[in-house]
């Protein structure tokens, strides 16, 4: 079998190093469309090298399938290797199968041979990426970087059957089964699968957490503060409103950000520098808020008040959003899900500039209290992470984009009161967690963030139907990332370990569909569950309670 594996080179990530049947050669990412050959047919094409995509491909290959993985960028792992090192594990016992294998292998890299505490689930991005690369090489998966689906007409169908994907370089990738494991869901959308964007209203699925959330205390301004300057003009990064009626649906999505990997080790720390395009005026509200901090909180603000650091090995930390004004770029993600490639790049670049500017502001602006500036300057980007992007993460945290309306739509009750599923393929346990969606000037002269949801849940089962499009739309596509769920349910199930576990189920489903010559929707669920359990997947509450299959 002819196997091609392409990996990005540090000096030039757009010129990958490829191996074909053991021979090395350099390949450019740009080729003449007319000269682009059609790829040989394979069993499964996985689109998107997220952690879910890697596990989907790995799972299917271990079932004996010939698998091709197409990644639009130059790295594997998505957020797992793109800055989200503080794993959203929640209740550890429900994470089984290949997802648990990954975290166990990452822990072993540091000499830890248990997964009993949250710190056991934390690793550096470069460690996770190396594990994923090794897994796919070992399983014989063909990996092709810089292969993005053609923006229009990129999916070819015959009736309800997806025949092939065409990428921007003109290559045609035919397969028996396809899996869209990207955060964007472009293959799903081009295949004509129904999806939604934004928040349902309370009435859609009877969810009391749905829609606009007028009264939310978390990640909120801690006292009333005016969003207007001395001339009465609205400050930047504030929407004039209106916020919307409580419980009303809209087409807005929760904030994106970059999860920064920072270090306080002087030998590995890069100093903050002023980014090109920096505009201090965009942080006028933050400057005002920090200036009033001591008066209201009776202490100076610290780094923890404006970001949330979680320590990982080797004096590094995953810094996430925290508080009223932080690394979340609130209100700037709304158009991303359905945007053109050009518009998405603009949004991505704008998020990066915002992040760079936010940190430079904290490190340098005289309006920032000196103790906070000093603390920020004791940290910096780690030299040994993301070397081809100068220490800035290579993955934007797309917390939520398109959501498929599939065979089964998961909603709030599935997290709280209807937690068992006969066709369960994985389990979840992370709290309902939506980041803020808008920052709005209020009629009383103040400003509020809106959209935050933080409600605890008990372990719950995830239905097979959540990764399946409806059969009358397509019969050979699996969608384990842009899965079928309401905004409320997605806010819990969107965590990376769940994506990985659903990816494992998708890989096994693909193998069973091919061997049984059936649509993916017609795979025998009992047989699928038996196979997943044999791979130590955790599917049911009673299995979790006994710890069966965890180790």
Write structural notes for this entry.
- It is a single chain.
- This protein is of the alpha+beta class.
- It has a domain of 130 residues.
- It has 15 helices and 23 strands.
- The strands form seven sheets. Strands 4, 5, 6, 7, 8, 9 and 23 form a seven-stranded mixed β-sheet that branches. The protein has a five-stranded antiparallel β-sheet with strand order 12-15-11-14-13. The protein has a three-stranded antiparallel β-sheet with strand order 1-2-3, with no helix packed on it.
- Helix 1 packs parallel to helix 3.
- The two termini are 35 Å apart.
- About 5% of the residues have low confidence.
Key terms:
single chain; 551 residues; alpha+beta; seven-stranded mixed sheet; five-stranded antiparallel sheet; globular; 4 iron, 4 sulfur cluster binding; metal-binding; oxidoreductase activity; iron-sulfur
Q: How far do the termini sit from each other?
A: 35 Å
Classify the secondary structure makeup into a structural class.
alpha+beta
CA-atom Rg in angstroms: 23 Å
Which regions have little confidence, pLDDT < 50, spanning 5+ residues?
7-35
Shape: globular
Q: Please report which band the strand proportion falls in: under 5%, 5-15%, 15-25%, 25-35%, 35-45% or over 45%.
A: 15-25%
> Biggest sheet, open or closed, and with what strands and sense?
7 strands, mixed
Note the total helix count: 15
Number of strands: 23
| Helical residues, percent | 25-40%
Average pLDDT level: 93
């Amino acid at each position: 079998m002819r196997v091609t594996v392409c990996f990005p080179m540090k000096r030039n990530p757009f010129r990958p190093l490829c191996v074909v049947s053991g021979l090395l050669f350099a390949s450019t990412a740009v080729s003449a469309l007319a000269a682009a050959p059609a790829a040989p047919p394979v069993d499964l094409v996985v689109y998107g090298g997220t952690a879910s995509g890697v596990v989907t491909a790995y799972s299917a290959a271990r079932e004996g399938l010939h698998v091709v993985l197409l990644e639009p960028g130059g790295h594997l792992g998505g957020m797992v290797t793109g800055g989200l090192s503080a794993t959203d594990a929640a209740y550890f016992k429900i994470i089984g199968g290949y997802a648990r294998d990954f975290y166990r292998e990452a822990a072993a890299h540091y000499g830890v041979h248990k997964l009993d505490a949250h710190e056991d689930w934390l690793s550096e991005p470069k460690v996770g990426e190396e594990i994923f690369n090794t897994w796919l090489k070992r399983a014989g998966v063909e990996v092709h970087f810089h292969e993005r689906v053609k923006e229009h007409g990129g999916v070819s169908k015959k009736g309800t059957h997806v025949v092939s994907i065409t990428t921007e370089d003109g290559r045609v990738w035919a397969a028996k089964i396809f899996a869209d494991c990207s955060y964007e869901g472009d293959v799903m959308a081009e295949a004509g699968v129904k999806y939604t964007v934004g928040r349902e209203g309370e009435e859609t699925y009877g969810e009391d957490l749905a829609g606009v959330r007028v009264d939310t205390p978390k990640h909120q301004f801690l006292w009333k503060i005016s969003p207007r300057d001395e001339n009465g003009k609205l400050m930047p990064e504030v929407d004039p409103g209106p916020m919307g009626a409580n419980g009303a649906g809209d087409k807005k999505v929760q904030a994106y950000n970059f999860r920064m990997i920072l270090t306080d080790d002087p030998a590995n720390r890069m100093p903050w520098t002023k980014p090109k395009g920096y505009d201090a005026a965009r942080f006028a509200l933050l400057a005002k808020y920090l200036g009033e901090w001591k008066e209201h909180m009776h202490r100076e603000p610290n780094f923890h008040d404006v970001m949330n650091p979680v320590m990982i090995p080797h004096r590094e930390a995953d810094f996430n959003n925290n508080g009223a004004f932080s690394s979340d770029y609130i209100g700037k993600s709304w158009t991303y899900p359905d945007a053109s490639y050009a518009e998405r790049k603009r949004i991505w670049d704008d998020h990066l500039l915002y992040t760079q500017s936010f940190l430079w502001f904290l490190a340098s602006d005289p309006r920032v209290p000196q103790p906070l500036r000093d603390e920020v300057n004791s940290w910096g980007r780690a030299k040994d992470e993301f070397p081809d992007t100068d220490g800035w993460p290579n993955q934007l945290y797309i917390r939520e984009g398109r959501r498929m309306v599939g065979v089964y739509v998961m909603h709030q009750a599935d997290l709280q009161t209807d937690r068992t599923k006969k066709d369960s393929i994985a389990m979840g346990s992370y709290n309902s967690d939506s980041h803020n969606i808008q920052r709005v000037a209020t009629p009383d002269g103040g400003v509020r963030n809106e959209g935050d949801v933080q409600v605890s849940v008990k372990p719950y089962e995830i239905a097979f139907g959540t990764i399946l499009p409806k059969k009358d739309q397509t019969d050979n596509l699996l969608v384990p990332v842009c899965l079928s769920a309401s905004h409320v349910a997605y806010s819990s199930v969107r965590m990376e370990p769940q994506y990985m576990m659903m990816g494992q189920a998708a890989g096994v489903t693909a193998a069973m569909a091919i061997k049984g010559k059936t649509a993916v929707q017609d795979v025998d669920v009992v047989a699928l569950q038996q196979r997943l359990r044999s791979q130590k997947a955790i599917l049911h509450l009673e299995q979790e309670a006994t710890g069966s299959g965890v180790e």
